[in-house]
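Late entry, evening session. Most of the bench is empty. Finally got around to the prediction I had been postponing all week. Sequence below, unchanged from the version circulated by S.P.
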Amino acid sequence: MATQPSEEQGKSNHAEPAADIEDVCVSIGSASSESGGAPEISKEEVDGQYYRPLLQAAFKGDWESAKRFFERDSASKMAKITSRSETVLHIAALSAQDQFLENLVELLSPCPEELEMVDCDGRTALHNAVLCGRLRMVKLLVRSNPKLTQLADNEGRVPLGISAVEASMHNEIAWFLAKNTTDDGPSQPFSSSSVNKTIMDLTYNGHHDITLYLVGRYPHLINIKSGGFSILHKLARMESHFPSGTRLGVLEKLIYKCISVDLNYKPTDKNSDPALQRPARSLWNAAKIVVPINKRIHEVKRRHMAAVELAKQVCIAISHRKTTEITDFIQENNLLDEAMVRGISEIVKLCIQFFPELIWIKPYGVRLTTRAVTYRQERTLRLFLKVSSTNQLSLVPGPTEEESSEMLSVVAEYAAIEYYPNFDATTNVAGAAFQMQRELQWYKAVESWIVPNVRTGYYEHKTYWNRFVENHTELLKNGEKWAKDTANSCMLVSTLIATVLFAAAFTVPGGNNDKTGVPLLLGKDSLLIFAISDALGLFSSVTAILLFLAILTSRYEAQDFLEALPKKIIMGLCFLFLSLAFMLVAFTATLTIVLDTRLEWVLIPITLLASLPVALFVVLQIPLLYQMVKSTYGPSIFRAESN
């Protein structure tokens, strides 16, 4: 700090010192001086104007102004310049001034312990750098003073603990801190109770690869709990972190299958990469820049693989316990039921493989198979059907009469959407009509699996079928509206195509012979192609019109949505696509006749442009058509898991 100024200096205090830092535009308090002493600065001066120029310089990243202040007052480099006891180092980290902080750390390099200064919350500059997501700052501070990773704030959180929550989007920061944080020091980050929350936060935010790395270093972390929840409990509530809970497009699925992921991958400094690994890393980085979807799919697949591996490690860890302890662990907070309801087949499969006795547990008093039917979780249900049998002595017996009645009653309900917001998304079908079809398929599948005499029973004084129709009235109306709207739109397009092709049949390119009426270009291949494509296109469009008309005049009974309506919609769309394709072929053939040999070079671009609508139709409608075909002609819901 500055020495106490003399009486004469005090008189000129508001004029001369401010000239040294004019660009800050704030006057310095009466305690400034040009000497190198270090008197006490009062709280009023801290809260007032003395450090205001330095504060603004740090906030703006104005190193030259700050440097002049340091030259006049050397103690100000580590002085608490705000009411929150923050130093200029804290402010630079919070303001994301990387270069300013780098210069300041270099200035403080002779005394690295000064980097351990804390604010009123017990946070160092490293805590602030993590909060702001500044990887460059984090690396610089840790390399200058490795002890910073071990220092906890007033809440007991080390920088790694903060990165797991506030900086959850910055995976590289969390990785760097995980590798550079040890269990040494007074805080003992991986032995204290605060580690429980850190591990849970890392898991909840999808940093499963980091959790696996830490569990490998400190095996006791695999069994930790926070708020009554273990790692496996957390995973059972995050369906988006598993392949079964993630929906990808056609291109994304292709990339997902082709891309390779190494769970042992850990981000390292570029300077430390082995020479042989640099070309591969550079090639992969270039691919991620050129095609950003590669990076996103790679991250998704790595998270999926790490989540499954982490769940497997938890199962291995608890497999050494007693049977009763394992059952209690799984039943606590209904772990297996959570995974079942959310459709996380990976967790259900691991639990059943490691602990087959869990098949017998009954969350909320009902079997897991009934819970799977209630929430329409086809994937998890298949896991039980793999070893299912109607033999009561089997490990997974078929439903008893009581269970059959209960299962048929839940499939007659449509309450899953009320309790599970993502219910519509998990069905993976197109439109309300096919949603209704899926509900009917569930009902028919359950009906064929249960004890036969239950099918004709009553539920609340009504047959199960009548109860099913009553509970699905709203969905039935939505399905009817969707089918009619779709049929109307498609029939309009089909009618336009039929009109055009019908008119084209009587306007033959090249004209006709006035006497015989025979086309003048009858012997040309192009005219033959035109005639065939025009005729096929006309027949296809008329067929599509009849199919869509049949849809509009349908009764729209519940049973119609099982096969009759879906088949008509599928066939109608197929014939509509064919009519569009044949119309464009006829158009291209006509152009070939008209242009003949005069403008041959035009044929190629015209043909390419003519194929564009067909390609667009394929891209936009084929996925929808594929879902319809799969839903209608696909395998039964009650089929065993193949692997």
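Two things to note before I forget:
The first strand starts at residue 225 and ends at 226.
The chain has four domains: 7-184, 193-361, 383-471, 477-633.
Will write this up properly tomorrow.
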